[in-house]
Specification:
mainly beta, about 5% helix, 2 helices, Immunoglobulin-like, 3 domains, about 50% strand, single chain
């Protein structure tokens, strides 16, 4: 049966500084007892170069009866999970697929793997997509659903661990309280590659987790502190890091309905800046070069003489909150000060500097043409910053593009980008996005050749501001698409593509 689609629950923290509070919200799941004839199923995507996966559970492939159970959980990316689904204890068909064409209808998806599963009473069937997507394995694990009244009385929670890092055959997990160090940590479990550990019961506390090799005190990974305030059941998934930091590991903690990604505590992050500030008659001291200072407690990073239209080199920096000061290089005239950028562990961010022009309304009456001559009486300019997190996932078949519109033009409040394939025209293109000024917009595209058009509307006319050819294949990185003014082009505008991972 093919008729019902359900979106997965995807809850993420905004900053590791508030992990404890978020964990309290994430894992406050229901303790209602399930029917005796029910088990459950869950899917986790551990294939780092996979597309977003559709996970389908179907009671009967041939039966179109709406009474038969069928559900599809869509867009499960790397390191993400479906919610846990309670099911009656019977046999089901499973499909693991991805959207290779325009339609997301189940009949049009590309199937990667099919299997069957018998759901057992009071058992969780966990399915994991692991390895390179061209030869990925679908692993199945069965574990008891723990609903122990003593856990509430004794304030315990349950934890199982799965090692999905193929470079480490055996690992040891340790845990300390949040106000302790590794010196006070207790060993929790030793676990092997692709083998689910036995369940461990821990007191409901706030913990720091550590990974080492067996019989070793060299810490390979350390988490931030995480609060476990409920008698729930968790899965701790150990996988390779896909960031720029030094640690080989990242961890995802799965609950009944949510997941929480963790990076190595204290890991450095990386950033770069882009000078998108136009020269302007109201900014006489700026000639096209900027110098920036990033300052936090105990760390200062200076960037010198960055030319307009260029990215800086990539800088590594400790996690923290940075204050940005920007000056015109030649005159040292201040352009902005005390703008905030927060850099978390293992993250890579790009800071875009740009100019905005605003009409001045001195008396606040909404009239910017007080003398009625048909022209704005006065304008002022501001230099702004926009911080965007780079997407470092490396899917072979799908690519995430972030569109950034830096065209500040009252005539064109928005610009529409069309991604036109060989059998399409602009008016028939299936893929397009509207880009508003200084507001990042995302689109996911599959491998293909696209003619990309940036189109603005002027009254009843559609104006092509820029066009470029974009070829996406298995080696293509995720990219930024940047729209800017450029007096050297015939249209006065340009569109550029830049890899997000370099």
């Amino acid at each position: 049966m093919r008729n019902q689609r359900t979106q997965p629950s995807q809850i993420r923290t905004i900053q590791l500084l508030i992990l404890g509070a978020m964990m309290t919200l994430l894992f406050a799941c229901s303790s209602e007892e399930s029917d005796n004839n029910y088990g459950a199923i869950k899917f986790y995507n551990a294939s780092s170069n996979s597309p977003e996966i559709f996970f389908t559970i179907d009671e009967d492939l041939e039966d179109e009866d709406e009474d038969a159970f069928e559900a599809t959980y869509s867009s499960i990316g790397y390191g993400e999970t479906s919610p846990t689904r309670e099911l009656e204890d019977k046999r089901y068909f499973l499909e693991f697929s991805w959207q290779s064409e325009d339609s997301s209808s189940r009949d049009d998806l590309t199937i990667l793997h099919e299997s069957q599963v018998t759901i057992e009473k009071d058992q969780l069937a966990l399915f994991v997509l692991d390895g390179d997507i061209n030869s990925a394995n679908v692993l199945q694990y069965n574990l008891a659903i723990i609903d122990d009244d003593n856990d509430d009385d004794e304030e315990l929670f349950n934890l199982s661990i799965l090692n999905l890092h193929d470079q480490f055959g055996s690992l040891q997990l340790h845990a300390s309280l949040a106000n302790e160090t590794f010196n006070e940590a207790m060993p929790v479990s030793q676990f092997e590659f692709q083998q689910l550990s036995d369940n461990q019961k821990l007191a409901q506390e706030e913990y720091i987790f550590y990974l080492t090799l067996p019989q070793s005190n060299d810490v390979l990974f350390q988490s931030d502190s995480i609060n476990f305030p409920y008698a729930n059941q968790y899965l701790l998934m150990v996988k390779p890091s896909n960031g720029y930091g030094e640690s080989d590991f990242s961890i995802d903690i799965l609950s009944w309905s949510s997941f929480l990604p963790l990076q190595h505590y204290g890991e450095t992050g990386q950033f770069r800046v882009y000078n998108g500030i136009e020269t302007h008659e109201l900014l006489e001291d700026y000639t096209g070069q900027i110098s920036a200072s990033f300052t936090t407690i105990g760390d200062d990073i200076d960037i010198e003489s960055l030319q307009i239209g260029n990215y800086s080199e990539i800088y590594s920096a400790q996690r923290g909150d940075y204050s940005i000061d920007l000056v015109a290089t030649d005159s040292e005239h201040p352009l902005l000060s005390n703008h905030l950028v927060t850099l978390s562990e293992n993250a890579f961010k790009t800071v875009f500097f740009y100019l905005s022009e605003e009409n001045v309304d001195h008396d606040g009456d909404g009239d910017v043409d007080e003398d009625g001559d048909g022209y704005v009486d006065e304008t002022e300019i501001k230099i702004q910053s926009m911080v965007v997190e780079n997407n470092l996932n490396e899917s072979l078949y799908q690519h995430h593009l972030q569109i950034l519109n830096l065209v500040n033009n009252d005539d064109y409040p928005s610009i529409r980008l069309y991604f036109v394939r060989s059998d399409e025209l602009i008016e028939t293109a299936s893929y397009w996005r509207t880009a508003w000024f200084a507001t990042p917009t995302e689109i996911t595209l599959t491998n293909n050749t696209y003619e990309v058009y940036a189109v603005a509307q002027d009254d009843s006319s559609d104006i092509i501001l820029a066009s470029e050819l974009l070829v996406l294949d298995q080696d293509s990185p995720n990219q930024f698409i940047l729209l800017e003014r450029d007096d050297s082009t015939s249209s006065g505008y340009r569109m550029t593509f830049t890899a997000q991972n370099q």
